[in-house]
Amino acid sequence: MLPQKVYETIRWIIAIVLPAVSLLITTLANVWGWNIPAEQICLTIDALALFLGAIFGISKIKNDNK
Fold it and tell me: I need a surface site. Which of 21, 28, 30, 53 has the fewest CB within 10 A?
């Protein structure tokens, strides 16, 4: 079982930080004309955030039912 502070930090990273980083990369790549595969990078970050959120949510539901 995770301590509450660790749980809240992980939840914040999954729900706030990863989507914000994805948006930042997309925006800056378009504004500055960066020659990077921004769409692929951001889709990867978004997929990772969704996957982690789902796994984290399932774990929380199972823990709450104990």
Answer: 30
Question: CA-CA distance, 17 to 53, in Å (whole number)?
Answer: 12
- The per-residue pLDDT for range 2-18, each reduced to its tens digit, is 788 998 999 999 999 99
Q: What is the pLDDT of residues 23-64, one digit of tens each?
A: 999 999 999 999 999 999 999 999 999 999 999 887 777 777
Kindly report the backbone phi and psi dihedral angles of residue 63, in degrees, each rounded to the nearest multiple of 5, phi listed first: -65, -40
- d(C-alpha 34, C-alpha 25), whole Å: 10
Angle at 56 (CA atoms; ends 17, 12), nearest 5 degrees: 25
CA 59/CA 66 separation, integer angstroms? 11
Q: Distance between CA atoms of 46 and 48, rounded to whole angstroms? A: 5
State how far the Cα of 63 lies from the Cα of 30, in Å rounded to an integer.
42
